Amino acid sequence: MITGFAALLSAGVALGQGTGTGMPPAGGGTGAGGQMGPGSGAPGAGGAHPTDLDLPVAKPEYQGAPIEEEPPIPPEIDPPTEAPPTFFGEEINSENDTIFYVLDISGSMGWDSQSYTRPDGTQASGPRIDRAKAELIRSIQGLSENFKFNIIAYDCGTRQWQGSMQEANDANKSAATGWVAGHRPTGATGTGPAAASALGDKDNMAVVLLTDGAPNCGASGSSGHRRMIANANTQGATVNVFGIAASGSYRSFCQGVASDNGGSYVDVP
Question: 3-class DSSP state for residue 113?
């Protein structure tokens, strides 16, 4: 009996090794004596071997240099725009930031004018020339430093501040203010030659002309003065005309000069 049982047991072990499944006998048993067959391993769900399961594969670590993100590009910001010069409240545009002031200092500029505000903010009254000088000084002091400027004062002749355009820095503004303040009204009105002289500086692209009467010296009639100014303006500068107490043919002359040269005309009461 013992020999027969051993033979049966050996046959069972051989059967388990032959199939390689390590499956327990039907009914969920583990084999004889409750032991697994050799090489069977622990049973998995549904009888699968653990090595047969689909497990997630770990991603390989990146071994290269770290990827740097590009910094954001800041938005473009336009530089602040400099305010244009003004004269009696009128903006003066100049395509190359130059301006030439032409100031009438003829005898009639000694006549009384309306009250006005000085550059320091105080109220004043007096002759036309004082009002004109106050406005000219205010305009010069308000120039941005990117501008260049010059000045002519005229009666039948001309007096020019500098031989060429000067930078609008503090030192030049101060010097120009002193030069303007020193003029007194005298003589007749040679508008054409004075404006033509300012236009003779071909770097100049804007003229501010202030006058208080029709021209009466330096050319033949108002039409002669207009032609003189237009012929001198070969660079295409704008000529902006400011007429004090203008009326009749004198006002028409001022408007014509502005129109001939692409500028504006402004009445100054």
Answer: coil
DSSP letter at 135?
Answer: H
Backbone angles phi, psi at 115, to 5 degrees: -65, 155
Residue 112 bridge partners (DSSP): 127
Burial profile 141-162: b = 16 or more Cβ within 10 angstroms, e = fewer: ebbeeebbbbbbbbbbebebbe
C-alpha to C-alpha distance for 63 and 48, rounded to whole angstroms: 37
**First-last CA distance in the chain:** 146
Q: What is the DSSP letter of 5?
A: H
Whole-number pLDDT of residue 73: 79
What are the extents of the domains in the chain?
86-268
pTM, two decimal places: 0.71
**CA atoms of 150 and 164, how far apart (whole Å):** 7
* Packing angle, helices 128-141 and 170-181, rounded to 10: 180
CA angle 5, 6, 12 (to 5 degrees): 90
Question: What single DSSP character describes residue 203?
Answer: T
Tell me what the pLDDT averaged over the chain comes to: 84
Query: For domain 86-268, which CATH number applies: 3.40.640.10, 3.40.50.410, 3.40.50.300, 3.30.450.40?
Result: 3.40.50.410
- Give the pair of three-digit tokens for residue 224: 């002669």
What amino acid occupies position 92?
Answer: I
